[in-house]
Amino acid sequence: MSLTLTFTGKDILNDTICLPGGRPAYTLHTTKGVRGRKVTTVTGSPTAFINWRKRYLEIGSQMLPIDAVKRRAGGWLARKRMWLWGETGYELHYSRQQWSAKNPSGAVVARFSPYRMRIFRKSDPAQIVFLYDFPPAEAAFLVLVFIYSEIRRQDKQRASSAASAGAASSAGGGGGGC
Known about the structure:
The protein is of the alpha+beta class. The protein contains two helices and 13 strands; from the N terminus they run βββββββαββββββα. The termini are far apart.
């Protein structure tokens, strides 16, 4: 059984995620401070949190330090990440503008496609597709992991773009001289 959850807006940190009939499954709200993101609250069943500063996930009453549940898969330099939910590990991989989560046998169990802005046609909303039926806490775990991974990817992409823009302007590309 597959289930597609669709985000209603562009900002995955402050949005509503809906079931196929349009009924809300989760609501996300992120608090910010002077130093950036504090906590993302995912209201649903169960309620879950990403504490960005203290680096932990919370699902129901279970606190999961990110360093304890996130591991590199395939060696130190590998780009794939293993996220542990109890005894089950999910390998996350980003390719072709989407995230996929694989179970230990290598089967894709869920996908996350970020929001894609289009100019000449309707933009594609962010979506999570569960290809299997998950217990609510495990589904919330995968929602948190996809959101955390995508936001970290966007942060790195922005930092890389800013660094290359700064390098270009300091290389004399500003014009105005003789």
